[in-house]
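To whoever picks this up:

The parser on our side crashed when reading a file containing two proteins. I've narrowed it down to the boundary between the first structure block and the second sequence. Both blocks are reproduced below exactly, byte for byte. First block:
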Amino acid sequence: MEFFLIILLLISIIGLSNFINHFLPYIPVPLIQIVLGVSLAALPVGIHVELEPELFFVLFIAPLLFYDGKNVSRHELWKLRKPILMLALGLVFLTVLVIGYLIHWLIPSIPLSAAFALAAILSPTDVVAVGAISSRVKIPKTITHILEGEGLMNDASGLVAFKFAVAATVTGVFSLAEASVSFIWIALGGFLGGALLAYLIIQLKVYIRRLGMEDVTLHMLIQLLTPFVIFYVIEHFHLSGILSVVAAGIVHGIFKDREQSPAIQLQVVSKSTWTMVIFILNGLVFVLLGLQIPSVSKEIFESPLFNNYQVIIYIFIITAALLILRWLWIYLAWWIGWFMKEEKLTKPSLRYVAITTIAGVRGAVTLAGAFTIPYFLANGDVFPQRALIIFIAAGVILVTLVLASMVLPLLAKTDKGKTEEAKEDMENLAKLRSAESAINTLRELTTDENRSASVSIIANYNQIRNQLLFVSDEEAARLDFIETTTRMKVLDVESAVIEKLKFNNEIDRESLYLIEEHIHRMRVAVTNRTIYRGLLIWTVLKRGYYNLLRLIIHQKHDSIKKRILKGNKVVKLKVEMARAAIKYLRQTMTAENEIVNVKLIGEYNDMIVKFKLANNLTDSRHYMSVQRELRDKAFQAERDEIQRLYESGEITLEITREMRRHINIREAYWMEETSIHSH
């Protein structure tokens, strides 16, 4: 029961970290989770979590690498295989040698093999961090794909090298020739074995589907178990379980792209489920890091063998060495790739080299690997400096995370600047993206039952979107002229409908007077927007007055009943006129006037719906309820998009707050308007 409560507490902390990051997106989520973990460990509740090394690998590494392999761009991975391998293999092995000797030289109490193990576990970069960096900083697509491929492959190469180094430390036996042959055998065997097992599991799912079992839950359960089963089976044969889950992920990604309609629902569920699983696993790793920091720090700081400041200096020296070595190798790898005439691989600028160097944040894989270091050697002795190795690994993770969160925004600012023009561009971007997000959300939610309400709201957002797409004064003036001209022509069409009815004696004199007065008011409104606003206010007040009369006297007086009947006739005439206007707008639509015509069609459609609902209280309330629900979803889509733009660094905090304020004002206005109409 106690262990279950601890798990619930840790998951709650992960959720809290996401909540905090929503308001402080410039602070990386892993840093927040580490701080929360440290805070939890500092509380006098006696929480202590220990995991067996093998269990830690299976529980965290297997699903993380499987997910990365499943979502990597395989086409780009193959096309850019040369520079990726230079980074994922060349840089990893160079890091093991150079940083390993540096660690042993700095801290002689760490044996050379253990120093190699620490260097190996520090070599992989965090794929999640690479994705976050590519969304915040304008990096060419080719370079982004190289970083993603490196982040995936160096996890495998770094962890394989780490296991060899740990095994050499534990057994005290190491042969470079035997290790090289074993590495090739273990790596190839693990990769091919993982691919084969993944293929067999996929065929099993296909067979189950042919039996008529389309249960998404069953297929999703098989997919979730896949990385754990494959990792365990391959490791049982003493091959690389790490590479096996990478291969399994790639194979699943290939078959996912080829699957047809029966698997669409599974793909949707799979994406949502894996997003949650990976978020929880990544979060657990960093929360556990935070939980371990106080005890590990205490063990190090209280040991008479180490000077506290000296240990911290070790962390900074090792971090600096990692970054310098990475900077040199990235620059060299790019140059070699350039000499090899790699397609679309251009000579890098110093700024891009700096960005990709700082982007080499150490994360979950580094920490998970560090926790798997055994406590004892084969002869029963304690593993040398295990606590110090974990402390240094945790320190490097913290330093690289903090450094990336501080330096990368500064490097990104050179593209954005702080000019008024850049601010205006950000505002327009935020407005446009939020409107498009709302439109896309409404289209996904549109059904036959709510189509009228949805089209009405989409028309409003389309108007906002179209205004933002044509922001120049000349274009705005041109569209305004087209709109004025088109509105006048549409009013002529409406007048023609009335003239036809008048000619055929199908309209009474009073209705004719009311309609002609309406058309006259609209002509004035088109040519003079100020007068139009006054007329609009007068119309609303007059409508409210008649509604009040109807409410007070309950339609008992004949004069009021006649007025209502006359109003119903006028409404029917206006609906007929609106349909004629829509027909004209569709027939005369061209590329030049499409934006204006679509806008007017939306207005007339909305008018028809409101006219139809005006005299049916039940339908009207249902319509307003449906529209209110859709509006709520649209406003939330806007807020989500604004938050995403802020988290990706495309807009500033000031613009984010301003956009949220505008959304809140529009939402409050909409709620007030619907409240008035519903009563």
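<<boundary where parser fails>>
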Amino acid sequence: MRTVTDLPHKVREEAHVLIPMSDGVRLSAHVWRPVSSDAEPVPAILEYIPYRKRDLTSVRDSLHHPYLSGHGYACVRVDLRGTGDSEGVLTDEYLEREQRDAEEVLAWLAQRPWCDGGTGMMGISWGAFAALQVAARRPPSLKAIAIASFTDDRYADDMHYMGGALLSDSLAEAGTMFAYGTCPPDPEVVGDRWRDMWHERLEHTRPWLLEWLRHQRRDDYWRHASVCEDYAAVQCPVLASSGWADGYSNAVTRLLAHLDVPRKGLIGPWSHKFPHLGEPGPAIGYLQELVRWWDRWLKGADNGVMDGPMLRTWMQESVPPSTSYAERPGRWVAEPAWPSPLVHERVHPLTRHRIGEPETGKNSGKNTERGRLTVQSPLSVGQFAGKWASYNAPPDLPYDQREEDGGSLVFETETLAEPVEILGSPRVDLEVSVDQPVAMVAARLSDVAPDGRATRVTYGLLNLTRRDGGDEPTVLEPGCRYRASVHLNSVAQAFPAGHRIRLSLSTSYWPLAWPPPRPVLLGVHEGTSTLALPVRPMQDYDATLSEADPFGPPEGTPAVPTSQVTPPEQRWEVRRELVTYGSVLEIVKDAGTVRFDDIDLEVGRRAVERYGVVADDFTSATGESTWTMRFHRDDWDTEIVTHTELSCDERDFHVSATLDAYEGRRRVFSRTWNESVPRDLL
């Protein structure tokens, strides 16, 4: 990243500004604004997240908020209530209270003497969720949003119930927020109240996983704040971005298709990162794009930001399988609109282990049944699946799929005589039968090289009891035939000539997804089952676009100074024991201890996830998330340790959780939860 210090405006910084809410709670804000805004008010841009502005996001914040402020904006980074140095308690994600708080913050900003009355919202992940959700509430000052790595569908396209199947990332995210929501505020900021504020958080928290498990269907809990329920509610311009290695690769194109406002889409090869910090690379000059976006919609500049294509995306080239990539080879391609007039669906029949030639003309839709292929996958299928979303904690991308395919039903094309490029969401339309009342299908699309190595390109999950949607699941009758469509995550991928395209179907995908109560024998009926690929022919202008490079190099302002006190540790380990037949995936994400030099604060973060199973006992599946977070300055020494464990039998999920808080070596708080939630056809 190119560090920029010479900005159009000199910036003034206020690290702790209290914003009052209507119920008396005060939220803590960090404000960067042009010095000139004392006399010449400017628009305000809000980022609103729970991840501790004073320390844990301070390095990232320092790269982009001063940059945008130096281009003529008041940038305001607010901790949600109950997090960082804000008052109150955070009890769940995306609640009504959280969104009302955001509206009150925007109203407060619009009334500041240094604000001209117009506001925008920006963010990644939770911050993007917040911006999109608040935009749908249409606060009067909000003129535009810029969002990255988000979804408009909280039930089926977040880390909870993909295709109606329970994701293990639901446990992982609950564990993360169990830790972040119980950290203490900084006494250097809030003074002697810090201990009372901390204990209020400790007393009123509870494992969010319990609430998420109580809503296994697509009910009003998930409909709330899911913008897909009413796209028309969003009335302001939207700049939406994400990455193909992220779990949130689908929502950008859905917004482009369904919103009726000025909108632009951008999808790179990135994991869960802002585009200017994008990994795998290439990262881009996203902050320059933001300046142009805000200049147009907050200042009214006639700068042509809406000219050109609606969507720019990175067409990924073939790569060998790897759990991490520094760069993804490829090129930028452009779409004038979405759905794209350049992309057409090519439907391939699934015959005996083959992906047949596309259905065209006279034979389209006239496949006749040729037989039934069956599979009952072992629980080992999925151990090389990587994370639901790559959070750029390598190795968290899927590895070589050949071992996974050994427990799967595999269909494959002939060797490609010419390249094939896809852009969008592949779909598998199946006619299936099963031998159990609850069953799932995992579908994976891979690029198979001439030497046999298989790189997963995209995947999708479907709980077959929810084949008609997640609102009202139905029991499967053994032996009956059902039609079911598995929608795979959107992707842009080039398959070169000489390679093959492989579709793999499995009845489990552990530990990425929680397995059904019992092993399932799945029958797939040939001829009446198909694979639909969104094929995009290469365009002449693609080469021109790629050569011109539509984006500048990544830029940012200088990062706040930090020192690494103890080293980080990253580990991803699969272990199999061949006496008891136990297998374990253990993930260690340890940031070590980092000193934030400007505030003389040392922070340690360590997360361990562990997913275990014994042989093919589907009720032996267990997942654990353990977090340790420590904050130390002089004689202030605090630590929180959280542990969440999810296990099951055929009827129930079982949640065990503990929360311990320490001052020095003295434990000052401890609580334990042991609760069960019935499985709802899951």
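After patching the parser it read the second block fine. The first strand starts at residue 2 and ends at 3. The chain has three domains: 10-154+224-335, 156-221+561-682, 344-538.
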